[in-house]
Amino acid sequence: EISVVVSTHNRIKLLENCLNSLSNQTCDKEKYEIIVADDNSNDGTQQWVKTLHTECNLRYLRLDVNSSCGIARNYGVKHSKGEIIGFIDDDATVKRDWIEKIVKFYKERPDIAACGNISRNIFCKFNRNYECLEYIIESKENSVPNNTNVIIGELDISSFMVGNNSSVRKDIFLRLGGFDESLRTCEDIDFGHKVIRNGYKICSNPEMKATHYLDINPIRICIKYYKYGLEEVIIMKRYYKNNIVIHFSLIGKIVLQFK
């Protein structure tokens, strides 16, 4: 029924936590598969995954060249078997009923093309191998009331349609061409705009609960958000070229990420 695509690159310790959370789901293990889409890691990820023993249907796919998260995700979807695609990154973990809640949602809402939720963020101090040494800051769970499904507009895409906690119907994903492979980051936000611009609906799903473990290293944070900023400008020009009000609204959302 559902394929969960986990994009990863050189973060075995984080990937281990992610896969543990996906392997311990309440959903019948025969109804879902886990696809590790490896963006050409060189830290032994391939060898490590092959040593795993799990009752789940776990598949490993590796890109020949280090490309981008979007390309890795597209590759995973291309080789998936499920009618629904769940996206989670290696630096996130999910609640035990995450898959069950996604499947249930799409059965109850045939009018919805995609859904996602705001992850709970925990900023961590990592060592070079991405082992968490210390938890520094923890954010609130999410700003949407529990059990409240809200149709998402374009201004909210950057909050709800993100790759570390989202899902989409596979046929619609492929129909829209998947993630834009020319973007190094923010391809998930760009895809959300494509969904809405093509007349489909995105909905929040508060029951999709995930925790995102973020690196608090100031240098890596600056590099990360610098790259985000470059791609956000491309997306704003692409979709809001003549709408100055939308421009300032989105800029405000970007600035708030630094607070």
TrEMBL record:
Gene3D superfamilies for this protein: Spore Coat Polysaccharide Biosynthesis Protein SpsA, Chain A
Domain Glycosyltransferase 2-like: 3-173
InterPro entries: Glyco_trans_2-like, Glycosyltransf_2, Nucleotide-diphossugar_trans
Matches recorded under PANTHER family: GLYCOSYLTRANSFERASE (PTHR43685), GLYCOSYLTRANSFERASE 2-LIKE DOMAIN-CONTAINING PROTEIN (PTHR43685:SF2)
Name the UniProt record assigns to this protein: Glycosyltransferase 2-like domain-containing protein
Species of the source: marine sediment metagenome
